[in-house]
């Protein structure tokens, strides 16, 4: 996963959509958590910002460091991450239909995949 460039446009899409979704966080959180194995949207937004600033997701000194340990101890496997990614993308699509586009989907997917890589490496 390293070596992929996370563009400024992708960061803008993730951060802007996250800002809109936070305004309705309670309802969206419920929808997201009712989907199987879903919990990653705020950490994915953090990852998007890191990707643009550093070119990669940094695990040290972030909430992702703690998540790496928790996920490892809990026995989280690759399939869980894929289910969570699907739930995340579906929740965003439902929450922001007027903003949803292939570019936004790719931006969130890339930010999520990079954060998962960082979590798994921890």
From TrEMBL:
Cofactor(s) this protein cannot do without: heme b
Keywords: Heme, Iron, Metal-binding, Oxidoreductase
Ranges of residues in domain Globin: 5-122
Keyword Iron belongs to the record: yes
Record GO terms (molecular function): heme binding; metal ion binding; oxidoreductase activity; oxygen binding
UniProt catalytic activity: Fe(III)-heme b-[protein] + nitric oxide + H2O = Fe(II)-heme b-[protein] + nitrite + 2 H(+)
Gene3D superfamilies (UniProt xref): Globins (1.10.490.10)
UniProt superkingdom: Eukaryota
Keyword Cell membrane: no
InterPro entries to which the protein is assigned, alphabetical: Globin (IPR000971), Globin-like_sf (IPR009050), Globin/Proto (IPR012292), Leghaemoglobin-like (IPR001032)
Pfam families: Globin (PF00042)
Family statement drawn from the similarity comment of this UniProt entry: Belongs to the plant globin family.
The name this protein goes by in its record: Globin domain-containing protein
UniProt organism field: Malus baccata
